[in-house]
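Obj.: predict assembly geometry.
Materials: sequence records (below).
Method: joint structure prediction, all chains together.
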Amino acid sequence: MDNDPRTIMAIGTKKGLWLAESADRESWTLNGPHFLNIEVASVAIDTREGRTRILAGINDWHWGPAVVHSDDEGATWSETEHGAIKFPPDTDTALARIWHLRPDTAERPGVVWAGCEPISVFRSTDSGENFELNRGLWNHPHRSEWGAGFGGAAVHSIVPNIQDPNIIHAAMSTGGVYRSSDGGTSWEPRNKGISANFFPDPYPEFGQCVHHITADAQDPTRLYAQNHGGVYRTDDAGDQWISIADGLPADFGFVFLAHPRTGGTVWTIPLTSDEHRIPVNGRLSLYRSTDAGVSWSEQHHGLPDVDYNVVLRDAAALDEHPGAVGVYFGTRGGEVFASNDEGDHFVTVAARLPDVLSVRAAQVVG
Amino acid sequence: MDMITVEVPSVLSSALEGQRSLQVPLPAEGTVRALLEVLGAQYPVFARRVRDERGEIRRYVNIFVGPENIRDLSGLDSQLYPGRTVLIMQSVAGG
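Observations (raw structure tokens):
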């Protein structure tokens, strides 16, 4: 290996993990599977602390879930002997699945968040080798009223505030968005304006089936939400959400991505309603906004004209390339696409893999 | 010393230093639970593969004492006897 920057991609699927590598983000080599026949619902690439650590939340249907990590780009894998994530004995609960792995900011090295099933948030301060249950959310009085989305009951999005470590947003299906302003000690629902059209009261305090949330690059009080019916933005850290679905061909979906440097630039992948759950008219496209969701434009170059496969919430990602940001996603049909120009055109990285559940990409040196 | 034979599938052997068959002293309590505690103390990854953090046998793991599935006996409190073989297997699951 030389010292030119490379881009690596981790692709978690229903039956294993693949790793891809590219020097130009146009031509890719693929290796795998790692963990054959084991579900990889979550992946993360942590490039802080002067190393590249790939984290994977794996789930063996027979032998249970685990967080594993590799510091040599998949040549070897390690797991914490007694388990990186486990519920404390007094909860009488067992970990079912690790839905989301999220390294915190560069200013908080070692901190990694995990969103898990059953609905829970875990936090690690040692780069994902040991996690601790967030008791504030676990003991929340709303817990008995939270439900399970089709895929299970889990926290699937965790958004640490880039400026204030005491502010954290988390989202769950079903339950909606919760915010902590005291470092995770307490949590309050923040769903005003988000629809829950499967309830008699379509605007309850909580109970929404929010599919994904993410924060704007430049304004940490601005967040975006792809809901189970509805696309929203908040400009006050969740106190009020407004619809930004105008201009999209559908308001259902799972994915929402925010540019790592440019405020207001975001992507979503609309799907037709919750009844059909396919790309709109069977045409796989991203929609990008450069004005925080006021207007949208389709991005389709290099993508299939006919595709009836869903893109799941963690199966899409951006890199942090210093030039044009890369856009990556995989479908439940096992195809993986990459763009090295912020979505203007895509190349196919892999095809006919198992259902893609999680995708992350990052630039590495060495 | 009375011994128990424990056999595991190849996929589980990596959690037992590559062993697929072990000779384990019969614990004083004489139960499957006690046997798993003894093995788990030495092989924590094996312990997590077979049981969750509540101590429950994972849903798609079967443990046989001789020909009997312990779910048809007394579960983790099923009794062991000298010379018996304990077989730990994955059940039919997945898709």
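Conclusions so far: The longest helix of chain A spans residues 135-138.
To do: check interface contacts against the pulldown list.
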